[in-house]
Amino acid sequence: KRKIGPRRQPGSSDGLTTAQAEREMQRRIELERPVIRSRLTVEATGKLYLEHLEHVLERKPSTVGGYRSMLSRHIEPFFEDRTLERVTAEDIRRFLAAKKREGLSTKTVTNCLVFMHGLFAFAVKREWMLANPVAAVDRPRARGADPDIRYLDLEELEALLRAVADDYLGPTEHAVYLTAAMSGLRQGELIALRWMDIDWQARRIRVRRNYTRQQFGTPKSRRSSRSVPMTDRVAGELERHFQRSEFQADDDLVLCHPHTGHPLDDSKLRKRFKEALVRAELRSIRFHDLRHTFGTHCASAGVPLRTLQEWLGHRDFTTTLIYADYAPSPHEAELVERAFSPPAAVPTAGFEAGRRYSGTDE
Predict the structure, then answer these.
(1) What is the gyration radius of the CA atoms in the chain, in angstroms?
(2) Residue 299, CB half-sphere, CA atoms under 13 Å: how many?
(3) pTM
(4) Is the dihedral of CA 248, 249, 253, 259 positive or negative?
(5) How far apart are CA 19 and CA 37, in angstroms?
(6) 59: buried, middle or exposed (CB in 10 Å: 19+, 13-18, 0-12)?
(7) Which end of the chain is more exposed for a tag (fewer CB within 10 A), N or C?
């Protein structure tokens, strides 16, 4: 903030008009820009960028929280008090190499690169620096997703449900596991589910919220707001759960802590899920693989992949294509069998007649 001069009063020729004041302000900003560039550090700019994401672009709290953690854990320690004008593309490449040596996954390193690209683009727009050094750096190439999808077959799912702990959380976890495997909802979507989201008459579960980082918010993407068919078994399970729950208001959580009505602890839920797998003597899978259980069984039952995309809330159809191998194809094996079958024997009489007609002995 700078005091430029007195404001010109109506009917007077003394002082500055608004236009004159704005021109003078712009002139002083141009003079001080090199000073700004020489003082702003990567750390300070990162914090300003986070404020911009949160209050101007209104990004989700979970997104801002992830970026804030990325800034403090990875970017700030590497660049320390380095100013913007001193950061080069080679510095960015060294950062990527250092993070790979630390054992970070390609996805995490790429996320850091995306955040830094936005950070420096934010600075370039405000003319705090002349060019974005990240623009000259190639994005790390992912090795590709694991082609093997982990899921539970029907017998394994029943074994998991039988292995639920016999304590105060057991009935809730039984409902959680069954609903997850037979609806495909994400963990945060299950935790955020309210009784008003259960449409008993239409037999559908409507996904309207998500719960991540101890905060409620909108689903992962715009396409994630959806409704999923509710099987009779899930409907019966949730009906019994409703009858034994002390929290039955429309706004109350369906799969809440049975004593407090508060959201389930996602970390504790995953830990207890692993313990149930051990008791059931099943292979180790992630809680998220209950979602894959839904996807693979629906695909194998003949659900069109486009429909499955809507039920799972995938933004990109290519994500749903991981279940294509499980779709039934009753005639494909016969087609391949026919392609490699030995040719039918040619009748001799017909062959001789052909020779006579052609007039050749060959």
Answers:
(1) 31
(2) 23
(3) 0.69
(4) negative
(5) 27
(6) middle
(7) N
